[in-house]
Amino acid sequence: DSDLSMRTLSTPSPALIFPPNSPGFQNGRGSSTSSSSVTGETVAMVHSPPPTRLTHPLIRLASKHQKEQANIDRLPDHSMIQIFSFLPTNQLCRCARVCRRWYNLAWDPRLWRTIRLTGETINVDRALKVLTRRLCQDTPNVCLMLETVIVSGCRRLTDRGLYTIAQCCPELRRLEVSGCYNISNEAVFDVVSLCPNLEHLDVSGCSKVTCISLTREASIKLSPLHGKQISIRYLDMTDCFVLEDEGLHTIAAHCTQLTHLYLRRCVRITDEGLRYLMIYCTSIKELSVSDCRFVSDFGMREVAKLESRLRYLSIAHCGRITDVGIRYIAKYCGKLRYLNARGCEGITDHGVEYLAKNCTKLKSLDIGKCPLVSDTGLEFLALNCFNLKRLSLKSCESITGQGLQIVAANCFDLQMLNVQDCEVSVDALRFVKRHCKRCIIEHTNPAFF
């Protein structure tokens, strides 16, 4: 306590998180230590820790009575820290203003491995600056404990905020900035260059991001090991509409350790981009190219080079993929567990047959909106994929109750079945429910409950 009293301590106000007019901010409006707020934006503020003692006798008596009733103050420090660990960043900042003990506990380094901010009105750049400055108090200019930053849907996040993270958080391992469309390539390059331990990066919805690479300075400095310095294993670039094959080539060349890659609705990606990807990234376990309309059977031939390493594949609404592409995947990727081929109208019973006979450990399959798949294909699934847990047949016009009964009689572990907009009888649905008791059936038959 004596050491603490000799230092000037401060804590970010909840105004970092709540806009001045929000309900959660009303209690702090009368504080004498609060700075003035600007209408229409969230203001970052810094407050001194609460005083140790209250001088006014009436206030002192009231606080003493409240203290006697506050059972939470009887909890030991380790229990309080455990409770605080479940709070989001904004609530943790609020707890730090209750009393000196809570202040010291709320800023325990173990609670600041993660910063989580969400909302469109937050001045994220300023919030990150104030928070990192406070976390760097013991280690000037470097925040060694922070490993995860999640800033989702914060449209006011700019390159300045990411640059703050890059400069102050060298131990960062996970960064999620989904829906923050104001950040650019330069800011992302700074983060991956200055945070060598970064493994998880989510830039989904960041439409200005076109690739992932080191900065020029980092590339020159690390030229002997060029291409192996970015340790990212998980990369989500969903809805990065501007991403092209050239950008994917750059990503593949720099992120050779990728195991999870999601390119949903990256509509400019073609088979050529997948060819680049398979040259460098041979450890991919999960891959999504859903709604990439230029990906075809030739792209599946490239993806099949992953062989037994591939466990998850989503090719939903890739209309150029047919039975030929499915045969490539089934032949070489025998350990596939999840396949989403919804909307691939070129897939028929022949493709399902080849898939069922070669990928017998399949657990989840979505072949909805594939009008050429019939009961024959379901029979092959039922006789080969006994571990099937999730099956979606939504809008499969050729499916009947007979096919469902065959599946239910063989796949006892089925947990989810989607037969919406399928012509199946109530008796067939009851048969499924009777044989697969844990199965949740999604249907559009008003006679079945």
From TrEMBL:
GO cellular component: centrosome; SCF ubiquitin ligase complex
Record's subcellular location: Cytoplasm, Cytoskeleton, Microtubule organizing center, Centrosome
Any Pfam family hit: F-box-like
F-box domain mapped to chain residues: 69-115
Biased composition (Polar residues): 1-13
SUPFAM superfamilies in UniProt: F-box domain (SSF81383), RNI-like (SSF52047)
Protein name according to UniProt: F-box/LRR-repeat protein 7
Organism whose genome encodes this protein: Alaudala cheleensis
Lineage, uppermost ranks: Eukaryota, Metazoa, Chordata, Craniata, Vertebrata
Record gene name: Fbxl7
